[in-house]
Structures are given as structure tokens and as C-alpha cells.
Amino acid sequence: MQAARWGTMAAALSVAAALFATWPLGRYVDRAIVTRQARCADPAGCADTKRALWAVTEGGLRLYSKPARVFEAGIFHPLRHAMAFGDPLLGLGALAAPVGALAQNPLVGFNVVYLATYALTGLGVFLLVHRLTAMPAAALVAALGAVLATERWDARGDVARLATLWLPFVLHAALCCLARPTVLRACWTAATAGASGLASAYQAVALPLVLVPWLAVTMLSRRWRAGAWAVTLAALAAGGIAAGAAQLPRVIAWQEVSGDAQPRDEAVRDWLRQTIGESRAMPAAGSSGGPPDALHVLCLLLVAAGVALGWRRRLPGGEPWGSPLLAVLAAAGATAAVGLTRDASWVWPVTSLLAAVAGGIAFSVVAGRASGRLARGAAALLVAAVVVVESPGAYAPTPLTPMPEVTAPPAVYRWLARRRSEAAILELPAGEPLADADYMVHALGHRRPLVNGLSPLGVQVPMVSSFPHPSALMALAEAGVDLVLVHHHRFWENHALRRRLAGRVDLRQEEVGGTGVLHVVRPPGPLAPKPLREWFPVERSAWRLTAGHPAIADGDLDTHWRVESPRPDDLIEIELEGVWAIAGVTIRLGPHLDEYPRDYVVRGSLKQGKWRRIGHAHGAPPPLGSYLHDHRDVDMALAVRVAAVRRLSIAFEGASGPLGIHEIILHGEQIGGPPPESEGP
Fold first, then answer.
1. What is the pLDDT of residue 4?
2. pLDDT of residue 287
3. Dihedral pair phi/psi, residue 315, rounded to 5°
């Protein structure tokens, strides 16, 4: 009964501390979100927060409605597994979806989860410290310090960094399983470890970073039997593997988008390096400056006093009190080392949590020297008062950004919601982070797939940049896009796209609530050149590569030639055995749609040094038909007319953006007779 009272008190204190640390979010939970600066004064940070709102809401809905297609999100249409282009935040989405569904407002679900990252962190720290010290006052002080830490204020608005809500429960569950390894406790340990890793990509990396040193030092106490260790480690491994498996689609997406053809284990290491360094642009711990730094000093003083006063003291379990303190400090040191050496600010909320646990253990030793409950209570109140007064929330309200995108969407989005259709839309301007993030939030209401999207990988659907060129209209039509929304207020006066649109009076346009709506009508003509079916592929033994990377002609789709931007000397030349009537050239792109050649010139020759152009394209549309058929093996047919040649040359003149080729295939048949005496111009 007494334990239940303390648990209830800890839960109430954690919720109150969460509301205090994020105030006034509690008042505007249904109409605003926390951002680094109020009213999106920091556009990049605001865009990231809105992207997180979309990921938590969309991921949660898909987890419950379409779990097998959870990564097939409605952005970057028609690209596959677009949810994996950024942190999917599935663990948070699983919590937010039921709340948002009950409230009929995705902001409520997102903000409740945001508050839960504070409140559950505090409750978990209380349970962990209470388990170690059996002193509720010390556990309450530690919980308060974890919730009101300066590092959490520095990470405001970034729910992925703040998602430490399950980490203290993992440590607590592991200790309980070590003490009595039952099936239920092993399952709870695995569940908390999996939930912690699924909360965000940062927490998936932090989980082993914390557990390895903590378990290594804890083993030195030799307190628990080998069987208990085996069960606990197996449970932690099961949860960690499940969390790691959920990150595998991100590794695959990273390979496809980056054009990386390296082995999967190397790709995993690259993804880890990217994730660890992803938040370098964010302020480091303690950057808020001023009085809140006193919290760090207080924690250090508590640990120093505990060491000085309690070197002979034993905890309720009988072990020296220094053993759990050293284990927690080892984990905190590991995370701090990563933060300092890799300039990774995402680790500091994890480090502050562990520092609060260490401070709670040390406080139990210091307060244990006092005589009587009254003295211990007074000491706890004094430390708690210092924590509250010196917390960042006591000096400034949490910056909020109103979200009329959800509470009062513009007329064009209400019009879209009434037009029930599964066709995708493109919104312009595209490629601007804050604008694309706004489009994604609006999509939560109208539920139409978007060509737009926001991703740390820098993904962009190819046909957007050339709109409204006929090739872009062809590609949009092939991709199933029926509407283009043009937000005039987002363009500056001399924007190039605005000038191009003004000159296209042939486009079918209308105005809905001040937003231009263009109806995509496929231009006449073929969407893309296709090799004639009666022309067979030329046998590989009938031609050889005389210029170009050998990877494009080795018969292996796993090998890959890629350049960030083609240069004049990035030329492909092919010599055939005899005279051939070439009717088509196919470029195999593998899974890398974005690496298709936008601009190219194909030339043929019958005599040495005399070339004639037999095909070309400028602003070619992407091969979306092939991508939709099989996104892992994309083919693009170059526009080539039938010509008799002995040699072929493919130049990527004036091309911009990445270019990659896995294999090249020629189509045609060998013809008899001598070559012509002269060639045409």
C-alpha cells in the first residue's frame, strides 16, 4: 500500500513537472506545437518539428490500419517506402494514434506524447532510483531533476531527442529480472527495450550505448546468478534486435537514395555514422547559458558528497552503494564521450537522465546520514526547490507555434477533402523545407498522396524541378497525379517557376480560395521512348566498351557507376563487331530512379572519326512506368532512331544532378553489306 502511494505521488509529480517544463503547452494542447522559437522564427527547426508531427500521426495510423505497409507513406509519390526517408518514430506513433483518434485531432495525440516523453521519463527514473536505494525522497528528487534538466530545454521541439521515456524502464526491468527471472519479467524487459529503440533512431543508437557499459560494471558486483544473467541478457537482446530490425528499412532507403552500392553491413555503419552526427547543427548541452548551469553543479556536488560520506555504506540489497553509482556513471560517461567527440547533441538528454539517476543515488547516501524522516524530507525539499528554481522553465515560457493547418485549414484543402480521390497532388513551390512540411501536415486532413516531402536524405521527386515542361507533365500523368496546387503567396515576385507558369496559358487552371489549381492533362505523344519489340538485345559478346566505367558492362546489376554531376569527359563509347542496325539503348538504373539521365546525346558512326546524332533528349522525364513496375530494377529507354552503326557514343551534355548506371543494353540486329560510302550530316 505504501509503495502504491509513493508510485501515485511520483506519477503526479512527473506530470506536474512535465507541464511546468513545457508550459504553456498544456493550455494549447489542441492548437499549437512546441518549436525551438515561437511562431516558426527558426524555419529549419520548425520544419523538422512539423515533419515529426506528420511522422508520429501518419506512422501511428498506419501501424493500426496497414501494418504491412507502414513505410509506404503518402509523400514523395510515387517513390516507395517514403516513411523510411526519415525517422519514422513508430514507437511514439503507436502511443499517439489512439489519443488522436479519440480527440479527433492529431495535435492532441502528438502533444500528449510530447508531454509523455517528460512525464514517463520522470516516473521511470523514480522507479529505478527507488529500486536501488529504497528511499522515496531520493527517487522523487531524481525524477524531478530528470524532467527539468537543462538538456531537455535545449532539445525543445525535437521529440526524437526527447524520447527517453522508456530508457529508465529498461534499466529498472533488467534489475527486476536479475533479482527474480520469471517469464513475465523477461517479457517486460524485452518489451521495454524494444519500445525504447522504436521511439526514435537516436534512442535505437542510445540503447546499446547505455546498456553495454552499465551491464559490464553491474556484472562486476557478482550479485546475481549466471542463470539470471542469461535470461536478462536474452530478453534485452530480443528487444534490441526487434528495435534494430525496425531501422533496417531506413538503411535500405539510404542505399537507394544515396546510390550506395556497398554491402549491407557497410551501409549499416554509414547509417549509424549519419544518425550519430545528424544533429550537429543543434545547440550542444548547456547552450542556454546562465543560471540553469547550476543544476550541473548541484548534481556534481551531490555525487562528490555521496562518495565522501558513503564509502562504507551498503544499499538495501546488501551491495556497496558505489556499485550502481559506478554503473550509471559509466553509461553517462559513454554517452557524454560520444556527444563530445562526435559533436552529437542528441545524446545530452540521455546523459542528463543518467546524471539525475546518479544524483539520486548520491542523495540517498547524503540524506541517509541525517537523523529522522523530517530531516531527510527537509533535505529533499531543499534540493527539489533548487532544481525547480534553476530550471529553464522558471525563466521563460516554452516557445509555441500555432497550427491553423490543423485547426482551420485553408479553403483549398477543404475543397480537396471533399473531392474523394486517391490520385496524388503536387504543391508548388516545392523543395522549400518549411513549405513542404506544411503540405505534409495538411495531407493529414485531406489524405491525398503528395509528390512533395521532407527528408534529411535530401530526396526530391525528379519531375518537380522541370515543371511545367511537357516532360514533367508526362511524368506527372504517368505517376497518377491529377492536380497541381500553386500557392502564389509563397512565391517571391521574380521566382523562375512563377514566370514559367505565367507563360503557359494552355494549362487548365482555376482558383480555389486564392490558390491556383492546375489540372494535369497528359500532353499528346508517348510518355517515354520504348525499344521496338521486334529488335532483340545485342549479345554482350558482339560489342565492347572503349570508353566508360567497366561496371556498366560487366553483366552484374549489383555493380554501379555513379557521378554527382556529369562532366564532358563522362562519355560512353561502344564498338560493335560488324555493322548493326541499332534500334534502341536501354539504361538499367537498379533501384536508383533519381539517377536517370535528364540530358543526353546518342551518336553513331560507320567510319572512324565521323559521328552523326541518332538520338537526344533535354529534360527527359523519369522512367516512372518502370519504377512502378519494379522499383528495385528500373530501366530507361533512350530516344534513338534506327541507324546502321559500327560505333556508338553516349554523352550526357548539359546534364545536372546525379547520374548512375548499373548496366547498358543495346537493341538491334546485325546487317550485311559494306558500310555506306559517306554519312549524312
1. 83
2. 44
3. -80, 170
Nearest partner of 463 among 448, 446, 480, judged by Cα = 480
What residues does 601 pair with on adjacent strands?
A: 616, 651
Find the helix or strand (DSSP H, E) in which 218 lies: helix 201-219
Q: DSSP states of 131-143 as a string?
A: HHH--HHHHHHHH
pLDDT at 608 over 90: no
**Residue 367 sits in the same domain as residue 430:** no
Whether 465 and 565 share a structural domain: no
- Measure CA 549 to chain center: 33
Return the SS3 of 111: helix
In a domain, 531, yes or no: no
Nearest-10 Cα torsion for 99, 102, 106, 110? -10
Compute the distance between CA of residue 389 and CA of residue 395 in angstroms, rounded to an integer: 9
> Does residue 155 contact residue 25 with C-beta atoms inside 8 Å?
no
Q: Are residues 306 and 160 in the same domain?
A: yes
Cα separation, 401 vs 580, whole angstroms: 66
Range of the domain at 621: 540-670
| Biggest CA-to-CA distance, the chain | 111
DSSP per-residue codes, 84-101: GGS---HHHHHHHHHHHH
- In which band, very low, low, confident or very high, does the pLDDT at 512 lie, cut at 50, 70 and 90? very high
- Asked whether the beta carbons of 217 and 291 are under 8 A apart, the reply is no
Is residue 39 domain-resident?
Answer: no
Mean pLDDT value of segment 116-135: 95
- pLDDT number for residue 399: 96
372 and 471 fall within a common domain: no
Q: Which three cell numbers stand for residue 649?
A: 557514343
Residue 56 · residue 110 · CB < 8 Å = yes
Q: How far apart are CA 501 and CA 496, in angstroms?
A: 9
Query: What percent of the chain stands above pLDDT 90?
Result: 49
Task: At 98, give phi and psi (nearest 5°).
Answer: -60, -40
CA distances from 14 to 10, 160, 360 (A): 6, 20, 15
Dist. CA 612–CA 602, nearest whole Å: 9
Q: In the structure, what pLDDT confidence band is assigned to residue 298 with cuts at 50, 70 and 90? A: low
pLDDT beyond 60 at 674? no
* The three cell numbers locating residue 14: 512527473
**CATH, residue 562:** 2.60.120.260
Interhelix angle 373-389/294-309, rounded to 10 degrees, is 150
- For the segment 646-664, the average pLDDT, to the nearest whole number, is 86
Same domain, 506 and 591: no
Strand pairing of 400-402 and 481-486? unpaired
CA 266/CA 264 separation, integer angstroms:
5
Q: Does 212 share its domain with 308? A: yes
**Interacting residues of 236 by C-beta distance below 8 A, sequence separation 6+:** 170, 174, 189, 190, 193, 211, 215
Adjacent-strand bridge partners of 429: none
pLDDT in tens, 455-503: 887 777 766 777 887 778 888 888 889 999 999 888 876 677 777 877 7
pLDDT at 389 over 70: yes
Same domain, 596 and 561: yes
What are residue 483's DSSP bridge partners? 425, 519
Same domain as 194, residue 146: yes
- Whether 324 maps to a domain, the answer reads yes
Pairing of strands 32-34, 400-402: antiparallel
- Domain total in the chain: 3
